Structure prediction request, 263 residues.
Amino acid sequence: MTDRRTAVITGGAGGIGLSCAIRFASEGCSIAVLDVDERKGKDAVRQIARQGVPASFYPCDVADRAEVLKVAATVQREMGPADILVTSAALIPNTESILDMDMDLHDRMWQVNYHGTLHACIAFGRQMREQGRGAIVTLGSINSLLPLPLPAYNPGKAAIQRLTQLLAVELGRHGIRVNSVAPTYVLTEGLQEKIDAGQRDPDKIMGVHALDALPDGDDISQAVSFLCSESASKITGVLLPVDSGWAAAVSYKTYAGGVPWSI
Ligand SMILES: NC(=O)c1ccc[n+]([C@@H]2O[C@H](COP(=O)([O-])OP(=O)(O)OC[C@H]3O[C@@H](n4cnc5c(N)ncnc54)[C@H](O)[C@@H]3O)[C@@H](O)[C@H]2O)c1
Prediction:
């Protein structure tokens, strides 16, 4: 075994997870991508391996606890115990009414987004506990901060933030730090498809940020990498928004009296 760190990325086949995998590969980590999408997962691993590091794809539905535990044991055997875990796997919904929502979709979303995060943290957190070190970053969202009309996803992201804090406290004595990153709208392939389908309004999006530009996957991966680095060795249990100023601007810019530069 070398002193290469092993980074495990759930949902690493695409979007933000893939950006994180590429960044950790560029830092010399071995990369384990866990995802349900085999085709994208294999393509991702080919792309990651161009950085000259070991990279493997593990088909895995994070909602399935037994499968996550089994895959974690395989990753440990083949790549060594996890030093870094990023939980990016998720389903991202559209606006829904609580009273009329599809409860099967609701339950599946909790299984993937919340339970999937929990399953991965348990499986790889145990490996980190054995090592006495590790860093976990969960993917939150601006949905972790305020109510938005996504009745399964929104409370799920708030719950992931609380779980992150609980894990930070429980695992801190084992040398493991646990933090969350909260992106605003990130222009991934998935978000672009929703804009094209009329499910997200780009003008509304741009109207509620302080900055004129949204983060991309690379911006999110830099925050994730920082939280896993020595520079963040005393940071645990935090939620770091990477939100182009959304949290500061969303109430300010919708104030009934207007904003000072438009009066
Ligand atoms: N894109 C955004 O605007 C945005 C904003 C805030 C937060 N986030 C969060 O960031 C994370 C990544 O989002 P993204 O935009 O990259 O999404 P994405 O859809 O581009 O990627 C998610 C990945 O998770 C995988 N996945 C889905 N279900 C899975 C399952 N059951 N088991 C394993 N893998 C599964 C998908 O195959 C996909 O590769 C999510 O947690 C999301 O909630 C995204």
